Fold:
Amino acid sequence: MKLVSWISLVLTLVFASGLWIIHMDNPAVGLRFLGNSYDLLVVIASAWGLGILVVLPFIPGLWLRSRRRLRKARRDAAAAAAELRRFKTEHPEEVLRIPDRDVSQDEAGA
Structure:
């Protein structure tokens, strides 16, 4: 998804740069619609603004979903750590020890 976001950003910047170059070359370039001529940059800026307005309602939902996923990941990590601590205290004979290393007080279960 990050790749898609970066590609869309690059394409947008290339498109906007091309429009800016066209506008600087010929400022009178416009779009004719229903007998009226509209400045090209105004049309593009309006379309960009409408796109932002369409995306804005989705931002709080995405933020809430990411917070929910982060909370679940933290809860799962805490549960795994608690299970590991419980396993170490219930079965100290099954916890592997490296012979040439000192055992700290936390690992020894004291």
About this structure: The first strand starts at residue 30 and ends at 33. The CA atoms of residues 18 and 25 lie 11 Å apart. Residues 60-95 form one domain. The mean pLDDT is 80.
